[in-house]
Amino acid sequence: MCLCGTPTLLPAQGFDPVKDAHDLRKAMKGFGTDEDKLIEIICRRNNEQRQEIQRQYKTHFGKDLIEDIKSETSGNFQKLLVGLLRPIVDYYCAELNDAMAGLGTDEEVLIEILCTLSNVEIHTIKNQYLRLYGAHLESELKSETSGNFKRLLTSLCAAARDESGRVDPNKAKEDARELLKAGELRVGTDESMFNMILCQRNYQQLKFIFQEYESVTGHSLEKALKKEFSGDIMEGLIAIYKCVTNKAEYFASRLHKSMAGIGTNDKQLIRVIITRCEIDLADIKGAFERLYGKSLKSWIKGDTSGHYKHALYALVGEQRSS
């Protein structure tokens, strides 16, 4: 079964990192900045190519590209470009670190990252987090969260999900019954059973479990999760449920949430675009339009402006309109 999605950003053909480095330098030298040139290069190269451009930039000019971008741009446009220039693992680490820094914790970020990545991705992030911040991601998560939600994140952080892709219909029936007994068939909820099954079983097996649950009860497990849980633990379990049933729809809902209502959560919008554009953003765009009846481009157009808007267009594979 192919789990590959359709990206909106592909590696640039005929890639010449030395030329790109020189063009970027030219775009920022002297008075004024050629923002369109920054977009044309940074937003139309994949992460690996952007890393190579930065190496060449440093080699040729003895300057750090990120520092130069910071001094020449501002606001969300700057945040987007700087995010794109970071190696993707460092970017994830910075987002997790920001989510836990200062007063309060942005649990949604922890959920969006830890509930959606594979074992190897989580292991890589954990190792890099320790290198960058001198702290263990797991202990940071434990000190920032509590109760059932803390246990969920600890399980996910262990990154020990079965990824064999093997399915066992009988075991799925058993697990569906266990979930039913742990939730809807009892007073109170045995959250540890939900935690164990949703964090350990492979995605294909979970699909079977969810179908089995639905055929026994007549409603989706998502509905049961909403009834049995609340707050962060509910959001976390539902995120896992959605990633199993339709990952593109999960991220489409994250994009929608970042722009719905008054104001825009630009940090969230930027994070989903940066982390998904090289993986499955074309699928997410399709899901977005299906779910919300309007194109992602039209929402971006309504919620952002200027160079920031045009940079987002490039990343989501849309042509500029005025």
Automatic annotation (TrEMBL):
Q: Which GO terms describe its molecular function?
A: calcium ion binding; calcium-dependent phospholipid binding; phosphatidylserine binding
List, alphabetically, the GO terms of the cellular component aspect: cytoplasm; nucleus; plasma membrane; vesicle membrane
- What PANTHER family does the annotation carry? ANNEXIN, ANNEXIN B11
Q: What is the originating organism of this protein?
A: Drosophila hydei (Fruit fly)
Tell me which UniProt keywords the record has, alphabetically: Annexin, Calcium, Calcium/phospholipid-binding, Repeat
Q: Cite the SUPFAM superfamilies for this sequence.
A: Annexin
Question: What family does the Swiss-Prot or TrEMBL record give for this protein?
Answer: Belongs to the annexin family.
User: What Pfam families does this protein map onto?
Assistant: Annexin
Record note on domains: A pair of annexin repeats may form one binding site for calcium and phospholipid.
For this protein's source organism, the top of the classification is: Eukaryota, Metazoa, Ecdysozoa, Arthropoda, Hexapoda
Under which name does UniProt file this protein? Annexin
Report the Gene3D superfamilies cross-referenced here: Annexin
